[in-house]
Design brief:
- The chain has eight helices and no strands.
- The protein is mainly alpha-helical.
- It folds into two domains: about 5-95, Rna Polymerase Sigma Factor, Chain: A; about 135-195, Arc Repressor Mutant, subunit A (Orthogonal Bundle), CATH 1.10.10.10.
- It starts with 9 loop residues before the first helix and ends with a helix.
């Protein structure tokens, strides 16, 4: 009796892929693409760049998987690729001095010019509270982007990806105490910047 796809480990999927089962790679992508995107978004703070990096992650994984030795777990290896690609993209954007200009006259994506409507989310929060929460969330994201990269990466991996301190230490190649210190300093700096 064959296992349900969710019951197959990453290591088994890697083996199946190496043995010529292309669908095993698709399962790895489905299982981990959201995490790759989240890591990239945490470093870059830009959806389009994060999507591009997440796609690049799996192009790299596809090419490198035949040589993957399995010294680390697949997820640790994949997260390291995502983090490295996101760092590279961040540096590249910084060198280019990337700036985005958004026009209020820009058409709404996916709609023709005949009618532009917005569907407002159905929420129980009062509009002023909802607005305050969104502004606060945006401020937090902006302040996270201003943190030094070593603090930002550790904080994103802990708070967004919900990785353990041990996993983060392994992923970033640091001592456990170093990771705890970086996360504590990142949180303290955020508190000061946000005045909370």
């Amino acid at each position: 009796m064959s296992k349900h796809p969710d019951q197959i480990s990453d290591a088994e999927l890697v083996t199946k892929f190496r043995n010529g089962d292309a669908s095993a790679f698709d399962q790895l992508v489905n299982r981990h693409s959201t995490r790759a995107y989240q890591i990239a978004y945490g470093v870059l703070g830009n959806r389009e760049d994060a999507e591009e990096v997440a796609q690049d992650v799996f192009v790299r994984v596809y090419r490198a998987l035949p040589k993957f030795r399995g010294d680390a777990e697949f997820t640790t290896w994949m997260y390291r690729i995502a983090l490295n690609l996101a760092r590279n993209k961040y540096r590249w954007n910084k060198c280019r001095g990337i700036q985005k200009n958004i026009s209020i006259d820009a058409p709404i994506e996916g709609r023709d010019d005949s009618e532009s409507t917005f569907d407002l989310p159905d929420t129980e929060e009062p509009p002023d509270e909802l607005l305050w929460n969104r502004e606060f969330e945006q401020n937090v994201l902006e302040e996270i982007q201003k943190l030094p990269p070593i603090y930002r990466e550790a904080l994103v991996l802990r708070n967004v990806e919900e990785l353990s301190y041990e996993q983060i230490a392994k992923l970033l190649g640091c001592k456990l105490g170093t990771i705890k210190s970086r996360i504590a300093r990142a949180r303290e700096e955020l508190r000061q910047r946000l005045k909370v």
